[in-house]
Amino acid sequence: MAKAPALPSGFELPLEPRLPRIGSIDQVAVEERAAALARRSIKREAKLFALDMAVRMMDLTTLEGMDTPGKIAALTSKAIRPDPSDATIPSVAAVCVYPNLVPAALEKVRGSSVKVASVATAFPSGQSPTSVKVTEVREVVDMGAHEVDMVIDRGAFLSGRYAKVYDEIVQVKEACGDAHLKVILEVGELGTYDNVRRASLLAMAAGADFIKTSTGKLPSAATLPVTLVMLEAIRDVHEETGRKVGMKPAGGIRQSKQAVQYLVQLYETLGAEWLTPDLYRLGASTLLNDVLMQIRKEKTGRYQSPDYFTID
Amino acid sequence: MPAGWDYAPAPESRDIVTIEERYGLHIGGEFVEPKGGEYFPTLNPATEDVLAEVAQAGAEDVDLAVGAARDAYENGWSTLSPSERAKYLFRIARLLQERSREFAVLESLNGGKPIKESRDVDLPLAAAHFFYYAGWADKLEYAFPNRRPGPIGVAGQIIPWNFPLLMLSWKIAPALAAGNTVVLKPAETTPLTALLFADVLRQAELPPGVVNIVTGDGRAGAELVKHDGVDKIAFTGSTEVGKAIQRELAGSGKRLTLELGGKAANIIFDDAALDQAVEGIVNGIYFNQGHVCCAGSRLLVQESIYEPVIEKLKRRLTTLRVGDPLDKNTDVGAINSKQQLEKITELVASGEEEGAEIYQPPCRLPEKGYWFVPTVFTNVAQSYRIAQEEIFGPVLSVLTFRTPDEAVEKANNTPYGLSAGVWTEKGSRILSMANRLEAGVVWANTYNRFDPASPFGGYKESGFGREGGLHGLEPYLDLDESEVRG
Amino acid sequence: MSRLPVRKTYKLFIGGDFPRSESGRTYEAQGQNVARASRKDLRDAVRAAGGALGKWRGMTAYNRGQVLYRIAEMMEARTEEFAGFSSGRNEVESAVDRWVWYAGWADKYAQVLGTSNPVAAPYFNFTIPEPTGIVGIVAPDEPALDGLVARLAPVIVGGNVAVVLASETQPLAAIELAEALATADVPGGVVNVLTGFRSELAPWLAGHMDVNAIDLAGADGEIPELERLAAENVKRVVRGRADRQSPYEIAAFLELKTVWHPIGV
Q: Closest partner residue to C258 among B242, B455, B485, by Cβ?
C-alpha cells in the first residue's frame, strides 16, 4: 500500500508499521452497500450453514444489575447445550457477564468449549480513572476470565484526546495477559462513521484482539453499516500489517435473518478466513432462540412456536 | 475454517410471467400482424433459448402506427383536459407497481440483467417516472414562465436494449404528459417488456392509438425517423446512429432529441473515502454488465493512491457473482446479445494488443448464453482504443493523474460528454470539478444514480435534450405559442 | 471647397483584432469594399473563439452583465453611425435596448432555467445551465443590425463565444458592431465577425468539429445541407429568428448539468 498520509494531530502514535490510511467514510454510500449486501437471498443448505455458524459465534450475554449465580447457571447451560432436543446444535462461543459473575460462570462452563467473557473498565460508561479500570481487568483475569470486553473512553475520544484512549487500551491489553481483549467502541456515542473508523484503527493499533460495536446499553447499537465500516478497517489493518483482528457486533441483533445478514457481510468483506468464532462473534441475549427455531424450521419444514424452546 | 460459503441457488420464479408464442405490432390499441408477414425470434441471452417470435415492422406498418397516433392525437388526446391526461399516467404508474415483479422477471429473461437490478432499479424507476410526469400534465404553464406550452403532435421514439422498460418510461411518460401521442420502437433484442406494457395500456384504458409499439430491427426505426407524419424524434442509442438520424432529419424541421454514447471518467482523488469509492467504481462499470451509456468506463486514479485502489478493486471483483440473471444473488448477468459480446471481445483483444494489462477475477461462466467476465485494464494510455471507444460492457480502463488540472484535462479529452464521477472529501474541490467537467451529469461521491426528478442527458457528441425533471418536458412541448417582448 | 471624407476600411474581427482576410480578397457590398473571408479566416476565428471561451465563461455573471451593458453604452454613443448602416434610429435604439435587456439576464437566467431536484434518496441534486461553447451564427440579412444583435446577445450572455457570419448583402452593421464591441470591454475572441460569401463560409462553419452549436437565422435554401454537416459532431442546431427575445433564446445555447451529492454526516 502507498504510504499513509499524515495522521491528524493527536493521532501521531509511535507505531511500526504505521496505521493504514485513516481516510473517511461516506455515510450514504456505506449504508447503501450494507443494504445491498443485506438483500442477498440465502436459502436452504447455505442458510443452515449460516445459522449453525451463528450459534458457534454467539456470545450469549447477560449484563443486568439483577444477575445472580442462578441466572448465570441457566445461561451457561443454554450456552453449552442450546437445544437439548437436538444434539447437532453446537455450543455457543462464550457467555458474557459482569465481573462479579465470572466465578459462577467459570464453574458452570468447566469441561465445555464455552468461554467466559467479562466486561470490565467501568462498563458501560468507562468514566473512571485508568488505574481503576486496569485494576478491574487484572481482577477478572485473575478470576480466570478468558476474554475481557473493555469500553473505550468516549469522553476522551470525543474531546480529541486520542492518546489517552490509546494509552488506556495499551495498559488494559497488558493487564489482560493471555486473555483475549475485545474493545467496545460504543458506536452509538461516536456520532459519525468517520469516528467509528478512527476509533477502530486506534483500538487495533493499541492491541485489540477484537473490536466490538456496543455495550448493548444504548438504544442505538450494532447496525449493518457500522459493522461494515469496522470490517473494512479490519481489512485495511490486515492488508497493511498481516494482523487479523476479530469483530463483534453486539446489541440489537435479535432475529436469525439479521444474523445471516451479518455473516453475509462478513463473508463478502473479509472472506472465508474470518468465518470462525476465533475472529467473529455475535453479541446477543435473545437471538439464540430465534436461530434455533429457524434451524428446526429448515430441518422439519414446519414453522415453529417459541413454546418449544427454553427461555434461560 | 470453511473453504467458503456456497450460496444455494435463489432463483426468482419465472412462472409469474406468461410469454406468448408470437407477438404482432401494437397499433391503434390492438395487436396486428405485420403487413410483410415477417417475424424474428427474441432470445434469452443467458440461455440462447427462443422466448417468442416478434413482428418486424415495415414501412406500411410504421405508416399505420403513425396514422393511428395522428388519429388519436387529433381526435381526443390533444384536447383532453390535462388533469384527465394526468390520471391516465397515474394509472399506468400504479399498474406498473402492481405488476412490477412480472415485468422484472420478463426484463431479466429477455435482456440478461440481474433480477436484483430489474427488481430494485428498473421497475421502481419506471413506475416512478410515470408518477412524476403524471403530475406535470396539468401544470405545464408553471414550468415555463411566460409561455403557454402545448403538445407537438406525434412523437417517434426509439429506445435501446440496456434498460428496455425504463427507457420506454423515460420516453412515453413526458410525451404523454405534454399531450403528444407516441409511436415507440423498442430495441430489436429486447421487445418483450414493451409488448407486455401494451397490456398495461389496456388495463389503464388508455385511448387506442395514443401509444403504438412497433417492433423490429433498425429498418423499422429508419422508417419511423423518415416518416412525414412524425413531428418529433427522440432517440437513445449509439452516437453513430444518432448522427445518422440527425443527418436524415436535416432540413425537415422535425424536433429531435438524442441521448447517445459516453466514455465517462470516474475520478478518484487521494482523499476520497476509498472503500465507498471502490463501490462506486464497481457500480459505475459493472452495473447492468456495463451496458450503460453513462458507465464510468474510464477510471482516473490519483497516482498517490493508485495501488490501494487497484488492490481493493481487484479484491472486490472476486466477490462479484456472475451468472443466472434470475438468481437473486447474481451481481453481473448475461451480455445482451451475441453481437454485443463480439464487440466487447474485439475491443478487449485490442486493449491487450495495445499493451494494457488485463485483470479478470476467477469466474466460472455458464456454458450456454452470452457472458463476459468483469474486466479491468491497467497501464492504459489515453490513446488506446479501450480508453477512447465506448465498449458498452463490463470493462474498465484505468488511467492515472497527478493534479486536478490533469484529471480535468484527461476527463474532458473525448468527443463524449454524458457523465462523470468525482470522489473527494473536499467540498470546494467537488464544486470546482463539477464546474469544469464537460458532462451532463456529474456524480460526486456516488455513481449511476437516477431519479425521475433529475434531468439526464449529454454534452457534445453524447447528444442534446434532457430526460427527467422539469427539463425533460421541454423536448415534447411547443413553447412558441405566445410571443412576449420583455 | 468641401472636405473630402476619410473612408474606413472594412475588415474582419478576429480575436479582438481587425485583420484583412488572409486571402487578400474583398467584395463590394453597400457601396464599400468589404473583406471576403476565406475558410482559413473562419478556422482562425473558431480558434480565437476557443481561446476566449475559458475566460468569458469563467467571468462572474455580474461581470458579463456589465460588459453587455457597456456594449449598449458604446452603441448608444454611436447611434448616428449605426443608423447609417441600418434602417435608422429606431432600429439602433431597439438594438441598444436589447443589449440592456439581455445584460440584465446575465445573473438571472440560471435562476429561471436551473432547478434543484427533489430526488427520492439522500442526495442533494441540482441542475445548472452552462454555456454550450463555441457558437456559429449565420446572421440574418434583415434587420441587419437589430437582427444580428437579437441572435448574438443571447449567445454571449450565456457565456458562449461566437463566430458570426455577417449578412452577405448588408455586412457593414456587423463590422460597425465589432468596432463597438472592441471598445466595450468584451474580451478579444468572444465575438468574431467574418464578412464574405455565405455559401463559401457557412458549410465550413456548420461542419467545423470544434463548433458546438450553430444558429441558422440567416440561412435559407442551404439549411438542409448545413444541418447535415452539423450532425457530424452532433451540433446543436437553432433556427433562430430575428424577432425573438426571451430567456428561452439564451437557453437554446446552454447545456444543462446535473450534479448529485450524497447528504450524510
A: B455
